[in-house]
Amino acid sequence: MLALGYIAPTNLPWVLFPSLVWTAAALDQARFSSGRLGLALGKLSYASYLIHIPIQIVVLIALDVWAEGRTLIESPIFLLAYVFSVLLLSMFAYRFIERPGQDILRRFLGGARLAVSAPAAG
Questions:
Q1: Please, what's the largest Cα pairwise distance for the chain?
Q2: Which of 1, 11, 59, 92 is most buried, judging by how many CB atoms fall within 10 Å of its CB?
Q3: Which positions ≥6 away from 55 have C-beta within 8 Å?
Q4: Are 8 and 51 in contact (CB under 8 A)?
């Protein structure tokens, strides 16, 4: 039952997803994605996609080995540290793995563009 001021956890995705879509549309209208921060986050998105699960696994294994349970992961400070570590490792992965790999592929393919360019402003 949904009472005023309370959202059951099972209904949370139905509330958050439209909010996420609305926020993404508003940021796109504000040209966030073509700004400096948007471009930097775009470069890190693939690396963070690949890295976030292995980081979670390592953290959970470490907590099982050295801590008395997983209550630490419920802390907001832990969430901030996790997001920071994912972004930091994504920066390293982009700079030292993804970007050099793109350069090697470009040389191998004779300078062909690998990235899709942004649509023209209009």
A1: 62
A2: 59
A3: 82, 85, 86, 89
A4: no
